Amino acid sequence: MRLKQRVEEILKFQISNKDYEEAYRYAKHKLEWQNKHFGTNHGEYYLILLIADTYREQQFSKYTWELCKERMKKAEGVVLC
Hints:
Elements: H1 3-11, H2 17-38, H3 44-74
């Protein structure tokens, strides 16, 4: 089974290839950094968990940024965030 499918099983829904690739790149970098700096050897299963967590974090960040932009528009130039 492909990594993306395993991530989607954890999330309980399908995600776009673009969003998956974005989350994968960041999670892979984070995994490599952790393994190097902490002397760990986390493998594929941990990568899958990191991808799912990263996806959630990135989607929440996008949502809050869009919400902030809408509020700034309504405030007519007053910066709220």
